[in-house]
Amino acid sequence: MPTAMTLPAESAPLHTFDPASDELPLRLETFLGAAWNAPVSVSAWRRFPGGMSWVTIGFTAMVRGEARELILRLGDPAGLFAPYRTEPEYLALTTLADVPGLPIPRMLLRCDDTTILGAPFVITQRVAGDAPTPWNGAASREEGERIALGNAFSDVLGALHAFDWRPTPLAAWAEGLTLENTARRETRRWAEEAGYPGAPLPPTLHHAMRWLEANAPIAERIVVVHGDYRVGNFLRQDGRITAILDWELVHLGDPHEDLAWAGLRAFSPGSTRVGGLVDREVFHARYRTRSGFSIDPRKLRYYEVLMQFKSASMLLGATRRVQEGRARDVRMAAMGFQLAPTLMEMLRLMETAG
What we know:
The protein has 354 residues and is of the alpha+beta class. It folds into 2 domains: 123 residues, Phosphorylase Kinase, domain 1, CATH 3.30.200.20; 214 residues, Aminoglycoside phosphotransferase (APH), C-terminal lobe (Aminoglycoside 3'-phosphotransferase, Chain: A, domain 2), CATH 3.90.1200.10. 39% of the residues lie in helices and 16% in strands. Strand 2 and strand 3 form a beta hairpin. Helix 5 packs parallel to helix 9 and helix 9 runs antiparallel to helix 11.
């Protein structure tokens, strides 16, 4: 049973967050020992590259003679969306654990006490597989794997959206959410990520915000939205998707949101396929079959604009964090170079959406 844990008060706090610290595995051993009421030794410590948000570390925990392959995810206080809470990812993964056709890591523990490892963290079981980058025109010998993964990519999203969240703990997220306001809420959420209203938005982004508010559609249904469903956020092995990763942006909303985000051109360099994997017609057809939902082309075009607005807001928010001294990752500073082409793509999508 996954649980939220707090280490005994006598343990000395780790005042700064340093994922490379030699102290981190030792403090994790203490935490796990208290959680599992048994001595624990941690080995095979490996930080995974990539990502500007949660820090991901693989390790082996030996407890009662059993070796457990686990993943530690820490919400970096200087990360892209800091400050972090473990509740959204924890609640999503525990609630969705047994949904047919939805492969996800099994959640074990979570902790928001930053005195333990210097940041909020969750611990999940480790899933076999590697995370592919967007498919960029695979060789013919890989065509079979591309097709299999593309089909699975469509089917898994359909399984997620078909899940009935209403009788589950996720219903707590629905407070104040309606079919009429879900699109505007997402617009406001990403405007705030860019610093608005405390800081002015660039004129193009401000114009898009007003356009999105004025043209917000009424949703037909509210589903569990992954929030970052794309190639690069799943593990694959032998042509199968073994786990959908990175649930930090999970929320309730319009299913067109995930469909539009997955299909952004930024995630399919050099290809017209979704994520470089699957033709859009196939992606949508398989999604409709698995979810039982129709796709409204007008709403999809609207959400393509909103998702590009989201992307631009992320870029602007990252650079402002660096400017204000709240982030130290040089990659976040470099994100400012991507803002102009992202805004140009957003304008193109607005013109297409009419």
